[in-house]
Amino acid sequence: MKLLPTSMPRRTGALSLLALAVGTVAFLVLAAVKLPAASPQQAPLSEADLVDAYRHVEVASVSDAAEQLLGKRLYMSHRMRPIFPAKFAGLALTVRLKKEENNDSTALDGMLAAIDSGSKNSVYVMQVEDGADIAGMGGLMGTAMSARNFSGAVIDGGVRDVAYLQKIGFPVFATGIVPSTSVHHYRFAEANQPLLCDGVPVRPGDIVVADADGVAVVPRESAEKILAVAQQLDYKEHSMYAIIEKARSIVEAVKQTGRL
Fold it and tell me: Smallest Cα–Cα separation from 92: which of 113, 52, 62, 122?
């Protein structure tokens, strides 16, 4: 009886060595090849970049984007108007005044301190209780805000010294223009706390945007998402003008862009 060979046949051994060599070479080639790294997620915008981006979108698009994403009305009413044509965006610095007759020379000190705490990109947002006929701010406060590089001011109440504010180019939106003063008629209530400005919730650090169409407020935690949608809406609307002019049809423009 023949015994089975105890050693590998020469041909089989050669094939195994060849396969081993090919595998080694393939491993070395793959190791040398640098596979593309996974695309990192886009880093969040810095606060300054976010504010700057909001300066380049229309308030109407911001309002529409906020309504689409959050299902809320975050724009102020037709009563909130600029004292001269202006466009700005910035971070809310909130101040609330309560109605109170007084002879206290320090009653409004907190309001002044709040202004001095602001900085570049701040938007002064003030709620003046029953303040339709009371000037919540004027030329002196506007000069202080301008000197500290505030973006602008939004007053749920009146404003005065309009000629001077226009002279220094400090933009203010308010519900009216009146010559009255808050001194001895109001007391500082609080600063950097949530409040309602013309019925819209505003928290410190929220983004406030204003242009010829009015004022809108963007919750800080939703700011990047709302910005992205607002930019898309701006792009679609601006693209539609040429389509409408060429086709002489707004129906065709809406069909092509899906924007109205």
Answer: 122
3-state secondary structure 146-207: HHCCCCEEEEEEEECCHHHHHHHCCCEEEEEECCCCCCCCEEEEEECCCEEECCEEECCCCE
Q: What tens digit of pLDDT does each residue of 72-113 get? A: 999 999 999 999 999 999 999 999 999 999 999 999 999 999
**Coil/strand/helix, residue 209:** strand
CA distance 209 to 216: 5
Residue in 159, 188, 151 with CA at minimum distance from that of residue 175: 159
CATH class of segment(s) 48-222: alpha beta
Give the long-range contacts of residues 106-111, CB within 8 A, separation 24 or more.
107/183, 107/184, 107/186, 107/187, 107/188, 108/182, 108/183, 108/186, 108/187, 108/188, 109/188, 110/188, 110/190, 110/191, 111/188, 111/191
Q: Which helix (H) or strand (E) holds 214?
A: strand 214-218
**Residue 188 Ramachandran class (φ > 0 left, ψ -120 to 50 alpha, else beta):** beta
Amino acid at 79: R
* pTM (two decimals): 0.80
Instruction: List the domain boundaries for the chain.
Output: 48-222
Comparing CA positions, the residue from 160, 195, 152, 166 lying closest to residue 178 is 160
Alpha-carbon dihedral sign for residues 231, 233, 237, 239: positive
